């Protein structure tokens, strides 16, 4: 599809969402592969970051490998939605916050350095917002989490990588030492777009590169590379699709959905009865609503999902979107990001 990118911009964003070179001058290596100048690569990324097409260049940590995270939702009266959304987005721990088409209409992801801090954030939001029960839905199992987004072919191009990822061992939960906390804090906003970015992360350059490489090998970092923003690049519609699958079937169904290559995310979360019956979630992105609806229908047919109760929650508005912040949040106060 037409993303509005030049050929060089398109190749830079599409080719380096993973397998980013862990070398002292990574942009020089990218430049050599693209037959560009190092300064041109850096300038291009800076420009695309400034216009919103690139969120950052850096790490996508596997959820709950460090810190704790959960998806949550509120049922907010329409006349209070903007007010409540601003309040929720102001938490440093909240990294995604969307309005979706459902009685539970405000959906957000919160990440904290500990389970106790995450619980405290959720408690404060429920008590202060006064919107009834807060759904808090921690992840139990991931089947397909952020392997990137092929701008030429869409999520289906990831099918092979999804199957390879599904065979990988579950990564360890990492307890961070002081130097590792420094590194995580430095990575949260993305690599500096300079010639030697790994020398700017608060650790000796070689130690920073070696630690990132180790986390990638362990699966603590899911991928390291260019993080694109779908909406700004033409995929303007998305829906969270959920199913109520018997617990003894959900893992097999989740793996089947992920292996289809038809979704951008797929994971199992807890139910919260009686308010929320669904335990299997996926995300589908498309050019427009009709595109997403057609993809949902094709997915259900291909993966034999029609027997399971389901719901499709289209995104209406994006209030906040950035990478998860894991480090130093225990010192953050509400309203600071």
UniProtKB/TrEMBL annotation:
Q: Which Gene3D superfamilies match?
A: 3.30.70.3460
- What Enzyme Commission number(s) does the record list for this chain? 4.1.1.111
Task: Tell whether Lyase is among the UniProt keywords.
Answer: yes
Stretches assigned to the Siroheme decarboxylase NirL-like HTH domain: 11-52, 180-221
Q: Which GO terms describe its molecular function?
A: lyase activity
Which family does this protein fall into?
Belongs to the Ahb/Nir family.
- Chain ranges of the Siroheme decarboxylase AsnC-like ligand binding domain: 68-143, 233-320
Question: Which UniProt keywords are given for this protein, alphabetically ordered?
Answer: Lyase
Q: In which pathway does it act?
A: Porphyrin-containing compound metabolism
In its keyword annotation, does this UniProt entry include Metal-binding? no
Q: How is this protein named in the record?
A: siroheme decarboxylase
Q: Give the catalytic activity.
A: siroheme + 2 H(+) = 12,18-didecarboxysiroheme + 2 CO2
Q: Which InterPro entries match?
A: AsnC_trans_reg2, HTH-Siroheme_Decarb, NirdL-like_HTH
Q: What class of enzyme is it?
A: lyase
Pfam families, from UniProt?
AsnC_trans_reg2, NirdL-like_HTH
